[in-house]
## 1
Amino acid sequence: MAQLWGGRFTKETDQLVYDFNASISFDQRLYRQDIRGSMAHVRMLAKQGILSEAERDQILAGLEGILEDVEQGTLVISPAYEDIHSFVEANLINRIGEAGKKLHTGRSRNDQVALDMKLYIRDEIKETDVLLRKLLETLLGIMKEHIDTFMPGFTHLQKAQPVTLAHHMGAYFEMFRRDRGRLGDILRRMNTCPLGAGALAGTTYPLDREYTAKLLEFDEPTRNSMDSVSDRDYLIELLSALSTIMMHLSRFSEEVIIWNSNEYRFVEIDDAYSTGSSIMPQKKNPDIAELVRGKTGRVYGALMALLTSMKGIPLAYNKDMQEDKEQTFDAIDTGKACLTLFEGMLSTMKFSKEVMEDSARRGFTNATDAADYLVNHGVPFRDAHGIVGQLVLYCVERNMALDDMSLAKLRSFSPVFGEDIFTAISMKTCVDKRLTLGAPGRAVMEQVIREYEEYLG
């Protein structure tokens, strides 16, 4: 097939070279953006008197027909074309004739593909944000339901102090809220229109770049034509943000996997999000959580690949930049799929309240509160720390919790202990007396939940 750039050449491109150079196999997903950008460009050309109104209307009708036929499957995007731009333009010329040859006036494939990617990424950021919002809504629902579900908080994967499931879920709410903020930052920063930058040095045609930017819902045109066609910062930022989202999902998945184990039994994953074993009938595996954890590396790889591709490229456009698409597309698809499936798994998961609370009790998460009790009754902190350490050792050897001990036995370690010790070290007391902002106490958690409800609107 004749190329858009074939006039300079006297020989056909070697087929292997052509296949290696072509991008139609992956950039075909940009067809909507390519057609939308072309339609805005044509309207601007007619406004500026570069095209007649009749030519504008003919080209717009042709582009609308191509879009409709591709959407309905009656026009197949063929690998016979080098890229999506060639496919659209060649089909336009085939349908409307000479007027179609004027479509490319005042632009280059360099600013065209830069526009297509920005339009595509803008759409994908908005879709990813919707998925993050849905995950946040699920987290908030769990928080509201489990404000009094006590569980151990961990440091070093060791039981440390008692918290609530609401408090634990709130930590992930904060993570994913930051992720939404990062996506919003990228969207604001990238929302400048590169169309009109040409190959690298603009064009001699009297284009109205502000008008094109407005038609395509950009804030303004880009300010430097060389940067316009060679900027991939917004893709690197997006891949970085997706990597952070995946890191958060992976940490969450790791906890789900641990909590789902026979040793913990904190959660039961719904059958729809679990699989069994081909030889072990008792197994119920947390495959979705494991796959999300595994696919995190795939998104990290896309970020490192693009950073590596871009690190040595001089201004302006170079063919290396074609490598921005495949792995970006894959990272976006992976991130969106993981968000969707993880939210589905989380929303159907059952939490074992009694098991969680018993784990907190038997994990001596109230030991610090027992020491505080002694301090508040006049025992120096270092002595109180030693007394409670001896109590914990005694309980470990007998497989019991601190509040399983009798008052008499507690007093054998320190006569300071009184009847009120059992209230002081109950899970409810230990949690609810922590009332600084960010702590798990009921009153402050209710305040935070109200703030989260306002945030989600």
## 2
Amino acid sequence: MMDTEQRKNDGVSLRTIHISLIIGAVIMAALMIYATYHMSTGFSRVTDTSEQQIELSKAARDLMDASDYLTENVQRFTIHGDRRFLDNYFTEAFENRRREESVALMSKGSHTEEAHHKLQDALDASISLMEREYYAMLLVIRAMGYTDYPEQLQSVELSAEDEALSAEDKMKLAVDLVHDDEYYAQKNQIRSNMRASLDELEKMAYDEDADALTALGKEMNFVRVIILLQTVGIFFMVWLTSRLGIHPVLNAVERIKEDSPIPEIGANEFRYLARTYNKMYEVYKNSLERLNFKASHDDLTGAYNRAGFDLLMSSLDLTSTYLILIDVDNFKTVNDTYGHEAGDQVLIKVVKTLKGNFRSDDYVCRMGGDEFIVLAVHATSMQQHLLETKITQINRELADTQDGLPATSISAGIVHGSPEKDSDTLMREADKALYETKKHGKRGYTFV
């Protein structure tokens, strides 16, 4: 009586059904191995495609980062005359050589010919821009009286007119050469070529991901057939299969319908299957993230919206970030005088101008109406003069009416992060600084 009750509580022993299920188990195991092998192959293909896309995209951005680094150091050298920035410039250009390494890496990728061509154009434009930067640096060297300077500059000759300038005028001319419209036009050409390279990479990755995901879908259908066969094959073992097979399978089907990951429960084989599916599900979701661009970006200007800003603030290192709160001066007057369509075009121009003057890895956000925020990342307090120059250049470009839009300007409140300041504190301080700018006549900036 005790044995019967124990057997009832424990269910039918696997030993009892072992003989009857041995043949079916061998067949099911073979099918499972076959399916998981092909699933792993498909997953590896998706992973390899994603890794190549990430690596090549990083290479393209490294070129722009290197170009921006050169620009930052030549601009700071022309403003301060500090030899450190001159040394930084030539160390990057001729020792680190990130630009050249980026192009070389791109050339080794598969199906990247067009992207490589665009990135090579960006490198050529960056090298061409160095001639202008060399001339500006030599002006500073002459003005400061330096006698020891890199050999690359020794072949550069100043014009007789520029050689005759006073030290102060040479410094002023050097600053103008690396801050004027022509200089930024050449920088924009480099960015344009880099973006074209990234577009080619994204198109290539999209096509390859689509093929890989189609193949994975077929393999998943095959896996579902195997699961169904397993359920039918052990149907008579209701209690046992409900614990080890049926319940996990039914639960997995419901999760698939709900478009969510499969819980890793049940038999070991099913847990392995769930882990494989969840990995593919994660890759699939990552591929869909590209479609979520509109959720974090402003439809009108293409800048990050408030949701995107909140996400950035939660993920950035604020201790090395400048938060620049910006208002467009007299924007209501523009709307009232020229109409809302012209006002929209002015907002688009503001974002374009901000992106053109800040680095490619800085973030431009539209918080609503005519209020914007720029997050200048990886920045130290030493860059205050550089930010002043950028704001001045931005206002100079916004005052240009050759594009048919009314002249405008911006007011800015600028604060640098620190370990003691959270995001709310930074926003409050930036708002106070912006208020000070407006109180003193707008069209300018105030640092906290």
## 3
Amino acid sequence: MSDWKKLYKERVTSADEAVKHIKSGDRVFLAHATGESLLLTEAMVRNAASYEDVEIVHMVAMGKGEYCKPEHAKNFRHNALFVGTPTRQAVAEGRGDFTPVFIHHIPGLLETTLKPDVVLLQLSPPNEEGYCSFGISVDYTKPAAENAKITIAQINKNMPFTLGDSLIHVSKLDHIVEHDSPLIELKPPTLGETEIAIGKNCASLVRNGDCLQLGIGGIPDAVLAGLTDKNDLGIHTEMFSDGVVDLARKGIVNNARKNFNTGKFISAFLMGTRKLYDFVDKNPEVEMHPFTYCNNPIIAGKNDNLVSINSCVQVDLMGQVVSDCIGELQISGVGGQVDFVRAASFSKGGRSILAMPSCVKGKGVSKIVPFIDHGAAVTTSRFDVDYIVTEFGIAHLRGQTLRERAFRLIEIAHPDFRDGLKKEFERRFHRSYPSK
């Protein structure tokens, strides 16, 4: 038996025993999004009575988030780097916190102000050299494992073995839990007429040979659906999902014209179904990297013709973009939005697109507004913004005056709200609203 196999065998334990190594006051990082080990998280929650004031840190939560429940307020406190559905209420009610941070800065914080005590991982089985793969969650998860005092890893044969900067040796794992369970999956969203129209408008800004960054949700998926007439597209992103696989199988995404990492899909994490996970397993064309690589604007900006496509919540007439809160309510985080808006500005031929429906569905509220909501925070500044897209059209704001920006935004607002916005235009700029 080789040395690593002997070491592996010695460190195998159960989930309930492994989480006993978490101590009161510890900072515990969970693997990101679909990479979370539900087995270890649930074991930790079962052991809650043994803990006081354990800080749980992660970005997108795809599990149940039971550590955020009121009955566990003395045992756990959540520190969200990205607020999600299972954690939103805890942050809103003061049982949790939100830390604003650009994604590419997170690994650096893991060496300083957010240094982990414990990290809960989910990894592939080791290869012949004793290396496991972080699979679908490299992002901040690999840097967290490298900086934690204690690493606890579920070894799961269902985790794909992805390549790139995505490996960890068995010798770096303190406690190993062998358990094969289905990975968390994110099903493709159902696209309505509004999303399809937005997707077509965004897709019209994409050219053959472009390199894409795509966010999460219906709008990025609708964009992918609108790219079937393109060719030689590339991927450099923080995440991608099933829609990219569909385009890759059609030969539309092939990374052939990328001037940087030619022939490679570059990503930090993955969110999709088994179709996606099977596609990336041992795929030499797919490279997974931490956020310090994927999301560093200077590195990502080395890709010529980089097009970033992300969603937003609200835009004011100056072009200030709100994407992570509704008034004072924190609903998400910056994600990769600003990283890639800036990367696109560094890129030769780059473009950044921020897309949203023109109004809140069923509520009669415009998303293009004179002023952002009270308490809301600007995600992408008016100095960074490039294209804003709704189902009614495209507003190119970069290099435009405030007056021209307001005009272009009003023209893509929902028709029900344009008259009110035009009155605000005339009040603010002391002139009549121009006719087309």
